[in-house]
Each structure stands twice: as C-alpha cells, then as structure tokens.
Amino acid sequence: MKKLLMIIAILLLDNTVIAQDKLYLVFEFMKVDNEQESAYWETESFWEKIQVQRTKNGDILGWDLWSLQPGGEDQGFQYLTVTLYNNPVKMMSGAGNFEAALKAAYPKMSVEEVNKKMNNTVKSRDLAVRIYLEQIAATKDNFQMPMGTIAGINFMKVSDGNFEKYERFETEIFQPLAQKEVESGNRGNWGLMRYMLPVGSEINATHITTDMYKDYNQLINGGTKDSPAPSEEEIKKIEEGIATRELKYKYMATLVKKVR
C-alpha cells in the first residue's frame, strides 16, 4: 500500500510539472479608431512599463503588442495584445499584485495622474474580444521573436466531434512539416492553441495556429528556398486534416512591443 501511494504521488508530481511547463495565453483584440492611433500608442507605452514589472514579479511570463493587417476600421481589429502565463490559475484569476507593479513602474505618479491614465486607456481603444488559450503544440526552435516579427494568426473552427482528429492532423502532419521549414531557415516558429474560453456553439473559432517569421522577407522569399516537398501520403493526410476544420479568418500581425 505504501509503495502504491508513492507511485501515485510521483505520477501527480509529474502531471504538475507538465502543467506548469505549458504555456497559457490571453489574446485581447483591440479596435482603434484612426483618430485615436496616437493616443492608443501612448496608452500601450504606459502599460508596457507595468507589464515589465509584472514580469519581474513573476505574475506573468511576458507581454506583446501586435499590429494587425488588414486593420482598417471596417476590417475588425487593429491591434492585439498577448499576455503569457505558465499557469492556468494565474491566467484565469489575474493573480499577482497589480498595485505593486504599478508603483514600481511609476513611483512618482499621483493617484490623480494614474486615474487619468486609466481613463485615457478606455478612451483610446475598445477591448472588443478576449480569448483564453492553452498552447498544445509548437515547433522545437530557438526563435527569439525580434521586433518586426511577422505572425500569421489563423482562426480555426472545429466541430466537437472532430477535436481529436483535427489536433492529431496538426501535430502528426503539419507540425513535422513546419519543423522542417524551421530547420531549413524558411520559418521561425509554428504553434497550435486551443480555446479555453469562450466556449459554446456560438463562438467563431475553437483553435488558433500561428506561423512566425523573422520578417516579411523570410515569409515571402522563404518558399523560394529548397524545402522538402511533402510525399503523396502526406498530401493525402493533409487533405483529410483540412476537411476537419474551417479556416474562419487570418490576420497578419507585426510585433511592435515585447516584454520578457
């Protein structure tokens, strides 16, 4: 009995370590009117210093700001912020001492000045959509995501009965192909994320995949370099995998701020 309890404890510890090593992300999509572009940039510059302190305090792993294309006022969203966590509880609960981070970032700022900054935050943009995500697969790489990184953000809608089949397609077929592109220098990184919230029949997507490149040159000209062509069997499996999901929308994003 004692031996059995020890084995169970080891298994629980292993599962805890695995969970902590996972990456959890909050995507927040912003609508910014053309006349608010300058004010919005000031807003995110203000928040960037707070995110630096939150990272130092261990509240988050990091934070990014991305500019989206197409990004016109009639094309949905213009900016995306991404906040990274190593723990789903931290992500869902907003754990951490925000006041401590704020004071460390702006030790001389008065309460009135802080309130003004907060009011300007609300005025400068509309936080239109927030998505909680769990990363379930990624290429093995040392991509540092330099400023100017280009990311294709693909919104996939998968029916409930096809989750396992779709995720197996991404991890068993597409991920190895993306890994070959990473190793050949044609790509920086690839990742697959599953929605944690929101969920339900009315949501527009269930998964997000990201294709990262160091710049547009790598994105556009990478395909002209020698890359291993998929086999006939791989092509067949790709076609079967594509049938399991619907590509709802694609943004091209440019990294304009980063905290790590």
DSSP strand tally: 8
Structural class: alpha+beta
CATH class descriptor of the largest domain: Alpha Beta
Task: Could you tell me the CATH topology label of the largest domain.
Answer: Alpha-Beta Plaits
Shape: globular
The average pLDDT value, as a whole number, equals 89
Number of domain modules: 2
Molecular structure report:
It contains eight helices and eight strands. By secondary structure, the protein is α+β, with helices and mostly antiparallel strands. The chain has two domains: 23-129, Alpha-Beta Plaits; 148-259, Alpha-Beta Plaits, CATH 3.30.70.100. Strands 1-3-2-8-5-7-6-4 form an eight-stranded antiparallel β-barrel. α2 packs across α4 and α2 crosses α5. The longest helix is centred in the middle third of the chain and has 21 residues, at 163-183. It is globular, with a radius of gyration of 21 Å. The termini are far apart. Mean pLDDT is 89; it is low at 1-20.
Core attributes:
single chain, 260 residues, alpha+beta, Alpha-Beta Plaits, 8 helices, 29% strand, disordered N terminus
